[in-house]
Predict the 3D structure of the following.
Amino acid sequence: MKLLILNGPNLNMLGVREPAIYGRQDFKALEAFIRETCAAEGIECELFQSNHEGALVDKIQEAWGVFDGIVINPAAYTHTSVAILDALKAVSIPTVEVHLSDVSRREDFRQVSYAGMACLKTYMGLGFEGYRRAILFLKEYLEGRDA
Ligand code: CA2
């Protein structure tokens, strides 16, 4: 099983500011947490972070026929990007959305998620743990589908 883990703009700045919202741990720690989670579950993973919408769209398109599932935190593009939504729909790879913070309790402009419209599930407000839950959900979903 191969999962692609996508992180959007500014997540590489984790730990630098706004610890009350995003926690104190930095992006390196998040990447290590994701790799350890996948290794413990016997899952192959590739991690990709970009601050550019088109780069994320390219990566989603390239995932077609290569990855079994996608975990995505599109960050600010969550609330603006029809291009990312269309790419996820185009490849039709089982995808789970993750947000470190509980966006449902934040500003009005964060109340829409375009990417979420193409996702099986969303985990929010759980910090790093959201990524672990998304990985475990996809593992169970993909194993169930193959059985
Ligand atoms: O809660 C999340 O995971 C978000 O996807 C994070 C995004 C935000 O735009 C979404 O609404 C919710 C922000 C990414 C990180 O932004 C930082 C800002 C300051 C310091 C460090 C990171």
About this structure: The pocket of CA2 is lined by residues 10-11, 13-14, 16-18, 22, 73, 75-76, 78, 99-101, 103, 110 (CB under 6 Å). The longest strand covers residues 2-7.
